[in-house]
Write the structure tokens for this entry.
Amino acid sequence: MSLCVLLVSSCAKKSAEDRFIDDLLSRMTLEEKIGQMNQLDPSYESEVKEALIREGRVGSIFNIVDAKEVNRLQRMAVEETRLGIPLVVARDVIHGYHTIYPIPLGQGATWNPELIEQAAQLTAREAIQDGIRWAFSPMVDVAHDPRWGRVAEGYGEDPVLTSTMGAATVRGYQSQGMAACVKHFAGYSVSEGGRDYNTTWIPEVQLRDIYLPPFKAALDAGAMSVMCSFNNMNGFPSSANPHLNIDILRHEWQSDALLVSDWGSGSDLVPHGMCADKKDAALRCINARMEMDMEGNIYTDYLAELIAEGKVKESQIDECVRSVLRLKYRLGLFDNPYVPEDEPTFYSDEALAAAQQTAEESAILLKNDGILPLNIQHPTLNILITGPLADQKKEQLGTWVFDGQPEHSVTPLEVFRSLNISYEPGLTYSRDKNKAGIAKAVAAAKKADVILFFAGEEAILSGEARCRADINLPGAQAEMMDALAATGKPVVMIVMAGRPLTIGKQVEQAAAVLYAFHGGTMAGPALFNILTGQAVPSGKTPITFPKMVGQIPLYYNRHNTGRPSYDPPMLIDSIPIGCPQFSIGQSSYWLETPTEPLFPFGFGLSYTTFEYGSTRIDTLPFREGQGVGYSLSCSITNTGKYDAYEVAQLYTHQKSGYMVRPLKELKGFEKVYIPAGESRTVTFTLTDEQLGYWHESHHDFASKVWFETDSADYEVWIAPDSRCQTTPVQLTL
Ligand code: NOJ
């Protein structure tokens, strides 16, 4: 075949998208290309910002939330620059735009990807009206540490749950025309000490088994972009990590999504201690194919110089610009750069209903001695509403809310006012230490039949850079709970927080505990419905709740150790005085607490009860190229009085292997509606690939990793949570 024919056939295979981008790229100057790699926050003075856009030195702008302003700036890019390349407008749209849904950790607690996809669709519809075409979410950092403030922004501790929810969010946004940005790539959540931006050390196999799968799932769902993380992982800040950004993202996964830095994460290479100056930082980032620089200005300031010096090739720039143009092309911005300037519709009935349902499904009933649901039909039931979170329109929205307006929030107090209640907040905000109000709340409690104590954290205590070393209830809330419990009246504690809190003592004191996270705009009606039985709780923990902060990191899919904890272990107060060193044995626990959490992953009660039948296994017919597959099923009966949802969870355990495997691993889940007295069968497919994991060898000083499924014995079971081990079926591969 002649070269000419080869060229023709390769051209013929090019898509319209590629041809468009090739053509545009071939007409761009180096300055215009570098401009496309620059993302600007509009806090610059107008003249500076506008001049940069008119000169074609801006590829994307973020934090503009007004269609008219978007169009005004867009006109400069489209009509006043030589090539007319449109801007793409981005925003931190995290868990809603104006209508705010529960924080992502609460969304994880719903275990309902359809609902999360719908929430993302409605969010995108709101945001697009203001010209936002690129959302900086979902965050799919699997997190084991509730001290880390950003635990609020992800879907919890499990890779399968996080992958499912992240992919649902991507589909929801992108089906409406708003690009998703899956973040933070990668390994951000394992920050030492749970302190944000801190170093992480993650072995390659763990990175691949636990932290990377949600990114891959989001990309498989079509995510158009990825954001670098701030942290240094294994000595390499992500913006300058060629292993992550090139080997894995580009070569292994073949992704063509745009890779944007986090805010200044490129220039941060200087304080990280990797680069002597910002020019060096630009060099390290471009060599690691960080494609767009968010607010760091290192590309605009140094790339041209680095090219002139021969340190960077223009082809490196081209591949980055290609990604930027691709995102814009896929969003249709070249054809339709402008946004209609009609009055936007926010808080539609549909959005509010979805926000309420998501809030209902995100609330987890952790304890109930029978007090819930409240019998509001009782003619004289006197309810005291108390606590610092009962009537906080802003706080119930949670972290990362820039556009949701607190005046649209409906608080629990507002809804409960329709009943016979009294209200005495006790504390005015979550950190309040002024106990004067507690006495008033106690006086009111004495006259009440039931106390609803809305406790928790204000929104500012979680999210980026909002880490806590102490995850008890802040302020005087614990003292308030002591005082309320001392009245002898039943206390229902509702926790509105951005993370699991160490509430063991309060759980003992309370008659019931409902964990609601920050539930968003419609948290009030959602909690009202659950507390009064108009909705049945179905949330399950997306993350392990520790008993005390010293247990962290504590997660269900841990390894057993060679010396698993005695049951029960000898705790500090039981140790005989002066006893010899080894007389109390050697097993893996803390002297103050066993290894058991306060609440395990996947746990949540209902107003009804479910009975699980035994897990049944069938081998699926062999499918060419798809390996071995099994069908696992189990019948679940609703044995109580309420129609309700149950989240059935499929777990596996590999009993021996090339490497040590976790005690259990979630492989699938299904949220199923079961009317009272009826049974439903849940069925999961499990393939041999799902039983595989990343292997590692350092033999003969040659390090390598590979994915494989071991020939081994496995146990498989379907259960209501990660602690409850129903009788497993045995499987041998
Ligand atoms: C920093 C955060 O880490 C990231 O999640 C966010 O999207 C960007 N800043 C933009 O605000």
Remarks:
- Residues 1-10 have pLDDT under 50 and may be disordered.
- DSSP finds 21 helices and 26 strands in the chain.
- The pocket of 1-deoxynojirimycin is lined by residues 92, 136, 183, 262-263, 464 (CB under 6 Å).
